[in-house]
């Protein structure tokens, strides 16, 4: 994940690749007599400038405003993706909410309208409307399909730390426009994953590890346990590593889980 520059609007221009993993939340939407929201974790819905912080309810409000439909629905959200983990959990929930409402109310929004709402909800919500490997620029909301697959098992570990995206952006130093795009670098490296190290870099990682050293320790553990490539996901706190076999990935998860408290430990199988 490359942080290129800070924009006049306060956001940052970035360059990144979004890649789907096995870990996911579960959301159930059904018609009801009024809007009801339930979750297995406490999700605060503080309002700032009249805007909900709960992305599911923001997606519902945006859908109703755009379509004119008074959507009275019951929402049940099972959170499996830890909060503050750098895995896009809230954004994926917002996208799932929009897609579920589309299904219930007969697709009143065009794909362009869906994309427009997604970009307003959050920089990476647009990716989750499709969920296939993607190359992203701008604020992370300019999404292009990417022919890219990881042919090893991806072990994703989330320690007992929550990292605020706002905090991460406040301490990171933009690195400028690279000589070679991330898409070009991945194309050249192909599946030589050990060559990713030192080339495919997350610009957030250094400053976040300085603030949360356990992330760096877990990264070192993954490297010592045989991962061909290790990096932090997004603004943290999750770390992922590529392993040749599921047994190696599971062994690494068990060893690290015995040393550190983990909120999630997921293994995504190789792409077909």
Written overview of the protein:
The chain folds into two domains: 21-131, Ribosomal Protein S5, domain 2; 153-268, GHMP kinase, C-terminal domain (Alpha-Beta Plaits, 2-Layer Sandwich). A hairpin with a 2-residue loop joins strand 5 (47-48) and strand 6. Helices cover 35% and strands 23% of the residues. Helix 1 (55-67) runs parallel beside helix 2 (89-104), helix 1 packs across helix 3 (111-121) and helix 7 packs across helix 8. With 272 residues, it is of the alpha+beta class. A four-stranded antiparallel sheet has the order 1-2-8-9, with no helix packed on it. The longest helix has 16 residues, at 89-104.
Could you describe the largest sheet, including whether it forms a barrel?
4 strands, antiparallel
Low-confidence stretches: none
Overall structural class, as computed from helix and strand content, comes to: alpha+beta
Number of strands: 13
What is the average per-residue confidence, as pLDDT, rounded to a whole number?
Answer: 95
- The succession of helices and strands, N to C, reads EEEEEEHEHHHEEEHHHHEEHE
Full CATH superfamily name of the largest domain: GHMP kinase, C-terminal domain
